[in-house]
Amino acid sequence: MSDNELGMFLRIRREAVTPAEVGLPTGPRRRTPGLRRAELATLAGVSVEYLTRLEQGRDRRPSAPVLSALAGVLRLTASERIHLHRLSKGAGGGFNCMGDATPTRAVRPTVRALLDRLEPAPAVLLNRLSEILAWTAGYERLARPIGLLDGGPPNLARFVFADGRARIAYPDWDRVADEQVAALKQGPFMADRHIAMLADELTVTAGTAFSGRVDTLPGLPESSGVTRLVHPGVGELRLAYETLELPADDDQRLIVHLPADDATSAALDRLTGRHPGALRAVSG
Asked: pLDDT tens digits, residue range 182-194?
């Protein structure tokens, strides 16, 4: 697996920006997706040689002004800029914003109370290792039948990559797998020994299905979207989700699911045994 997360992130984002987006002409002979290195370097005010060193991992400590210039040309969002800053700080292996802290597994009483308030919506609390720490009864009705809550503690990333039932449960397994890798790669990734141990385990158990994604995907999973889930009792569900990051001291994230269409809303009502419409579909 590559240890050059900063260079990979810059390259992938460079290839995602079209010349037209930055005011450059689009020629018929372009073979490079997105921007060429020379184009990004010129627009950001750095040399091509320096940008090459950054992308290849031969220079891993760009200054704040350089990062700002690159972020501007690459049209990074606020969250992507924060991720870029973290990657630059952790690139040399000497900085880890988490230190050597063990992933938090304790759940604060107010967070448990919040989960209670979210019933009957399916909601789940995860830490940075994607360990499942707490969940609503609504989530258990979805996750228990597909095997997701087996093991102790259950782990969403491990289920997706190491449990054959996941490919049946998630019709869009490839996209779900991408999201799991992106979630693990937030922050220091392999500089965090706890995540590194999980990554090594998944590399052995899942092979290139995991390691290939590590080598090609930047961090930053989608904070919202729609996931398809095949439930053995009620069939295929379309679940809209929102991810809520808890304070840094918690080092946890809360994912809340809602029905994305009327059919899913009715199916969830059947699972909960509540009157129709208890869980209303998210309107477009």
From this structure: 999 886 677 788 9
SS3 23: coil
Q: Which residue has the tokens 């087996």?
A: 150
pLDDT of 64: 80
Q: Residue 255: which of 161, 96, 163, 148 has the closest Cα?
A: 148
For residue 48, what are the contacts with CB-CB under 8 A and spacing of at least 6? 37, 38, 41
Low-confidence ranges of the chain (pLDDT < 50): 93-96
SS3 sequence of 98-158: CCCCCCCCCCCHHHHHHHHHHCCCCEEEEECCCEEEEECHHHHHHHHHHCCCCCCCCEHHH
Spatial CA neighbour of 22 closest among 73, 78, 80: 73
- What does the pLDDT read at residue 100? 59
CA distances from 227 to 6, 79, 115, 222 (A): 29, 22, 20, 11
Task: Quote the DSSP letter at residue 275.
Answer: P
Q: In sequence order, which residues have a C-beta less than 8 Å from that of residue 113 and are 6 or more positions away?
A: none
Instruction: Return contacts of 195-198, CB within 8 angstroms, 24+ apart.
Output: 195/128, 195/129, 198/129, 198/155, 198/157, 198/158
The phi and psi torsions of 236 (rounded to 5 degrees) equal -75, 135
pLDDT digits (tens, 9 = 90+) for 79-104: 788 778 778 866 554 444 555 578 88
3-state secondary structure at position 241: strand
This model's pTM is above 0.90: no
